[in-house]
Amino acid sequence: MGGRGIEPYRKPVPDAKLVELEPLGYPIREPGMSNSLIVDSIEAFNEYARDQWLGEVVKEGKILFDTGVLHSFAFKVVRVVPAGVGRITSKTKFVIRDRSTGPEPEVPDVTFDDVVGQEKAKEACRVIVEYLKEPERFGEWAPRTVLFYGPTGTGKTLTASAVAGEAGVPLFRFSAAHSLGKYVGEASERIDDMFRKAESHAPCVLFIDEVDALALDRRYQELRGDVVESVNALLTRIDELKDKAEGVVLIAATNYPDVLDPAVRDRFEYEVEFSMPDRKEREELVRYYADKMPLPLKVDPAYIAARTGGMTHRDIKERVLKRALMEALKEGADAVERKHVDKVLKDAAGGDRRQVYHG
Ligand SMILES: Nc1ncnc2c1ncn2[C@@H]1O[C@H](COP(=O)(O)OP(=O)(O)OP(=O)(O)O)[C@@H](O)[C@H]1O
Ligand SMILES: [Mg+2]
């Protein structure tokens, strides 16, 4: 009578203030379905996550399945603040641990032959390739850290990929600005994570793009609250890399070497400057891409080289060759001719300076 039976004693579950999720992907998927996740707005993701998981009790290690847009996509709960377990409420904040480099790293399919010019850079990188092929041979003579600097669009990212491609090892690409922009306050955790992942895949190349976002000179720290934290984490990790991690080469790239924290900059064993292409290099670049274009290029590469002074490698490819190709295709022409090139060069010179920013 009146007995409610014996209910097992349950500790009250606290509200989860913060839940960190690691995207795992689909338990099963069809070929072609991507396992990576792109979240452009973490605020919107928060709404979405609370909507579908409101009231659920989550514990570190638990797997949550998406019931919405990404039906059955799995997330692992990697952190629940404050207690390791908690109930999702309308105030729970979600963060996503991006797997620094996205999906599993791959061996890039580019080699030094795909990098036109930049001979000094390639020269400096050859020894790194040798090392990555046979890490055990080098011992304490191993080249571990290189800094690439120079203007945007001159082949820094491409060359980093080519180093890994030449050596046949995977490339971990980490964009500092992109990742940290969203996760102020978690910088050092993210840095640790990225080095750990690279170490577990050695031999490999760890490529940190826009390293200035991570290792800004401490003098500029009012710009970002967590600069000291990220600089320190980076210093520690680079030192460890040199002491123990065999087979991991760190390549960092920046357009602004002068704003780097001096202690970080000092840690790099080499600095490699990427320069704007001179006339000869521009000509070589045009020849290289002409072979790859879907229509033949019936214009002397020297003609284009002479008219593209001040342009970067990327500009010549994207703003000249690609646009000229589009012109030709629009017309239904069966080759890219002088008039198509002249048109885009004229546009480029005459006010169509819509700058394209490449993040
Ligand atoms: N030296 C080069 N040889 C051949 N193609 C190049 C070269 N440099 C740049 N490109 C072309 O331009 C694209 C952009 O180059 P890349 O991303 O390597 O420039 P970046 O120096 O890393 O620029 P950013 O500083 O903006 O990151 C490449 O994917 C490639 O198509
Ligand atoms: Mg780049």
Can you describe this structure?
By secondary structure, the protein is α/β, with parallel strands linked by helices. It folds into three domains: 18-96, Vcp-like ATPase, Chain A, domain 2 (Roll); 112-273, Rossmann fold (3-Layer(aba) Sandwich); 279-349, Helicase, Ruva Protein, domain 3 (Orthogonal Bundle), CATH 1.10.8. Helix content is 36%, strand content 16%. It is built from eleven helices and eleven strands. The protein has helices at 42-53, 119-133, 156-167, 176-182, 187-199, 227-243, 262-267, 279-290, 301-306, 313-331, 338-349, and strands at 18-25, 57-59, 63-65, 74-81, 85-87, 93-96, 145-149, 171-175, 204-209, 248-254, 270-273. A five-stranded parallel sheet has the order 8-9-10-7-11, with helices on both faces. Strands 3-4-1-6 form a four-stranded mixed sheet, covered by helices on one side. A hairpin with an 8-residue loop joins strand 3 (63-65) and strand 4 (74-81). The model is unreliable at 352-359 (pLDDT under 50).
Residue fraction in strands:
15-25%
The CATH class designation of the largest domain is Alpha Beta
Strand order of the largest sheet: 8-9-10-7-11
CATH architecture classification name of the largest domain: 3-Layer(aba) Sandwich
Category by helix and strand content: alpha/beta
Mean pLDDT over the full residue set: 86
| Ligands (ions, cofactors included) | adenosine-5'-triphosphate, magnesium ion
